[in-house]
Every structure is written in C-alpha cells, then in structure tokens.
Here is the input.
Amino acid sequence: MDRAADRPSVGADIAELAIDTIRTLAIDAVEKAHSGHAGAPMGLAPVAYTLWTRFLRYDPKDPTWINRDRFVLSAGHASMLLYSLIHLAGVEAVDSAGKPQGRPAVSLDDIEHFRQIDSLTPGHPEYRHTTGVETTTGPLGQGCGASVGMAMAERWLEARFNRGERKLFDYSVYAICSDGDLMEGVASEAASLAGHLKLSNLCWIYDDNTVTIEGHTDLAFSENVAARFRAYGWATLDVADANDTEAFAQAVETFRKTSDRPTFIRVKSVIGYGSPHKQGTSKIHSDPLGAEEVRLTKAAYGWPPDAQFRVPDEVRAHFAETLGARGKGLREAWEADFSRYREAEPDRARDLDLMRAGDLPQGWDRDLPSYPADPKGIASREASGKALNAVAPHIPWLLGGAADLAPSTKTTLEFEGAGTFSAEDYGGRNLHFGVREHAMGAVANGLALSNLRPYAGTFLIFSDYMRPPTRLAALMALPVAFVFTHDSIGLGEDGPTHQPIEQLAALRAIPGLITLRPCDANETVEAWRLILGQSKQPACLVLSRQALPTLDRGRYAAADGLRRGAYVLADSGGTPQVMLMATGSEVSLCVEVYERLTNEGVAARVVSMPSWDLFEKQDQAYRDQVLPPEVVGRVAVEQGAALGWDRYVGLGGAILAMHTFGASAPIADLKTKFGFTADHLYEAAKAQAARGKP
Here is the structure.
C-alpha cells in the first residue's frame, strides 16, 4: 500500500492521522472484544472524517440542539465508526431530558469495553443508550427509512416555524448505507418515497465495497444501483475512491447546492482497507483481524504496531477546531435567533418548547367525544377517526397517514387547514405513504426522533410488513401510534388472506409496546387519550371494521378503566362463579351472555381486557381484585390466536379463540362457523360456573 498516493490533499498530515485513528480504534475494539465489524470503518474512515470535520453542523457540547444535522449510520454493524467519531468529537453525554451529565458520551474506556455488558458501546448503535446516536440501527435498511422520516420532519418544521427572515430550521440529514441496506426492501420503499417528495435535504452515502458476509456481492446483487436511484428521482454522484477526500467533499458540496431532489453519493471503498491479507474480502466483514494481521495493518498505516487504543492529542484538537468550533458558532447564533423569534412569535415558540420537552398543549383532549349507549353502535375504527380529528387541531405537531388505506383506517385529518404533506406543500399533516407499510413504520420512527407525534395506519394483517420498525419504536421508546384496523375474522368476505389470527399475539410479545384492542367507541376514545399521553412509549390501536355496540356506561363500568389494562365491566355482586374476559368486539358478546346468566341466578363477571401489558403493570392487589385467584370458572373470548390466554384462565379454563385461519363469508356465517355465538359462549360459561360449585 502506497500511502503517498492515498494521502489527502488538504491538511494531509493531520487528516491522515485522524483517519488512521478512526481505523485503529475500530481494529483495537473489535480485536479486544473478539467480535464486531472493523472492515467497514477501515474503508469508510476518510468519508466519515471529511463529513464530520468539514460539513456536519453539530455542536458536541449540545448534541440535542434541534437544528443540528443528523448523521445516521444505517450500516449499524459498523458501529465502531460512529463510536470513534463521537469520542474524537468530544460529544458530551446528556440524559433523556437533554441535561448534561458531566462526562463524555463515549470515553476511551467505553471503546475498550466495546460489546461488553452494560457498556455504552453496544454491538449496534442504540438511541437513548449512547448520546450522539440519532437512531437505533442494525437491522439493515431501518436507518435509511428513519432518515427519510427525519428529512420529512425538517421540511415540516421549516414550513411550520420559519417565518419570513426568521428561519429556525434548515438542517440536513446524512445516512451511510451499505450494500446490505440497499438490498433490503425497506430502503427501496423509503428511497422511492423520498424521491417522490423531492427531499433535497437528504443525502445517502453508499459504501460500495462489494462485500457481504457470504462473499462478493455479485453472488446475489448485480443491478445498477445508481440507475435505480435516478429512476426514483434522486441526484446521483460517484466518488471513485473513498480515500479521495477532496472528491468526496466536492460531492457533498454538490448535494448542498441541490434544491430539487435528494442526493445519492456512491463511494467506492475497500473493506478492511490496509489489511495486507484480508482487505477486500469477506474474511474482514465480521471477524477480528487476528493479532499478527493487526500488527501488519498498523505498520501499513505507519502506526506503531503495538500501540493499543492510541488517540493522539492533536486529533482531538483537530476535531475541536473544526466540527466543534463550527457547531458551537452555529448553535449559538441559532439560540440568539430563537430568542428574537420568541419575542416575535411567542405561540409558535411555546409550541416548540412543548415539542422539545415531549409535552402536549393544555386542554389538548377537551374535545374528545363521549358516546351514549347504542345497541347498533359504530366501528371502533370510526370512533378512532373521530377521536383523532378531535385532538389533532389542538396538537399541531400530530401528523400521519396510512399505507394507501386512509379511507378504510379512518386516519385522514379532515379539519380545515390540515392539508396534505407533499413536494408542493411540506406543511400538510396528512401523509400519503403509498403501499409501503415497511417504510411507513421506519419513517414514523424518524418523525418521532425529530420531536413530532406521528401515527401510521394499515390493516392489522399488514402489521407483519412493518414489524421491524414497530419493534424498533419500542426499543427506542418512541411515542409512535400504530393504528391497525380490520382486526379479526369480523372483516368478513375478504377471507383468510386478510383476516388476522396470530398478529395480535405477535404484537403483545413486543416488550415496551402498548397493545390496545378497545371494545366500543368510549374505550376507543380513552385509548387515544392514553396513547397521546405517552411521551416515551409506542402503542398500537387494534380496531374493528364492523360496528360494535356502544355499551351503557351508566349500567356498566366507565371506559376509563382501560387505563389499567383490564377492569371489571359488569358484576353481579359477591364472588362470581364464572368470569368472562375478552377484548374488542367480543366484549359485547360477553355482556350479552352475562345478562342471560345473571337472569338465571348465576353469579357472573365480565372483564374487559383491552391491554394485557398495562394490566400486568398494575399491582398484585388490583389484579387479584379484577381476577380473584379463588375463582376457577373462567372463559376467555377473542377472535384471534389463543396464545397467552392460558395465563388468565388457568389450566382448567375455557378459551374461545381461533385455532385455524378464517374463511371468506359474511360475518354472521363466520361467527357461527368458528363458535363466536351467544349460545356457544353460554354453554362454555355454564360449564365453567359448575367448576366453582362445592
């Protein structure tokens, strides 16, 4: 390797030293952990160094500054690249409220404990865990999708808050993506949407190193990627050598001057650059180099072969003089502008304060409706749409849409001024994602990461298409609302391809995700009140296509019991012989059978259980009050998989659930075929009541 030929042309000595510091930190961390991916950081170090020191608008002393540029490492396996940058930049740690913690976000000791238990340098970057990480990445393509959401958020914030010469928002979003990212469908969906929306503030940097775990990418990937992106409506640029920092800088300059489309920069790199025997091969993709290869590689860099975790002081100083000084100046100027803005636009400034704090305006829920008893009722999706339109005028940063299903999911904001987000008007609040569920979920995460309150809607069956971003929303504790309608065999004639069975159980299995299946219009209203009251937790709202009776809340318990996950809806008094428990559309069936049982003198109870996870968070006394342990007569009813209900009914209890896929037929016929009738439930309840007799 001829270093003279590869040496950067500007500030060569310090640039080379900084680049090699990034490379060797990655090498040493992976080697010590005996695990990780050093190859990509070794190849991409010149690109990342150039972006951070010459272009990124970011103040390491205030890493949550709202107008900072966003840097997303979608290729999350290359996490040591990001950790090295955070360390060298001197990013200061902050807590979840943005309060400085008086320590570096990533210390050298943290790097030495890469991939170890409780370290701040986990195998893949984790939002909230490590300051400086803008989004959790690792599942390939997710960072790409989130970056589109971040870019959409900037455009919306710009339209909302920039007033004439008073400009608060103008940041850019950069994402580094790998071959693997661009093979994933979610990245393609997101790129298509970004091109359609002409998001000129978005720049993807493609690490074209032609190597994946199995070998050369030509095993499975031979398309012209740049041509694909041009077809999406992106500007495409080529950098022939990742070590040519001036060529890359010129490409970034071109991006910054482009105003009508997003930019895709293809950078040709060598994975594991500098490793005499492993560079350019899959052997360096996800394995340590080995002690001897480490020595040889460091020698090729002109680095002391036996030095471990070496960070020259002048490299830290260089980052402080470039990124640090530039970011500090930009942030201080912005703060001064915001002080003047606060005087001129107090209401909008107050909104921005609330957004940054994760709070909502006072009285945001004052127009939520209350529904009188109605045996015909309305579909919970209809009630959801009305609730959404009741609160959205009072929460200007609540926005969202559906994957081409808004008329069915009832997720359109219909009040005057709601508008549609488009390339012609970035200030609209109705988002059209097209038939792109996976990207929709990832984009929603990016919006939430940018202080907005997004919701995303589709049919429950298609929650499978967006499970990865739903899981990441929970992992990142983002307040995203997922609206899933057409929740059961109750959708009828569309048949088993569209009738969800196992989806509800799958959502309940995600830690940190609130799953709610309300039983009527009033529970649906309370569900929205609860969801929007969460600032650090996602929720999914599971809703019916068909009308559900609106229960008489004068006769039965108030719907705000939903907040505790499960509550006694109806009770005949004393110790029940049988308890009927259900969610959603099956609750009214339980009420019908309860009335029949009590008329016959059978002591019965109905428990509405819209959210298992919320119920499990209640103290033991409350849970025992709702479901007394001594009562063995129990029946659970749900038009979904039986999985999980056994914890509530016990070994001898009855579960009326789905054990096969559904069928195409009118809903009445489906209820009969699969046993969701009053007579069937009555017989099961009578049998269970008999278990409780002496």
User: Anything to note?
Assistant: Residues 313-344 form the longest helix (32 residues). Residues 621 and 628 are 9 Å apart (CA to CA). The chain has 25 helices and 22 strands.
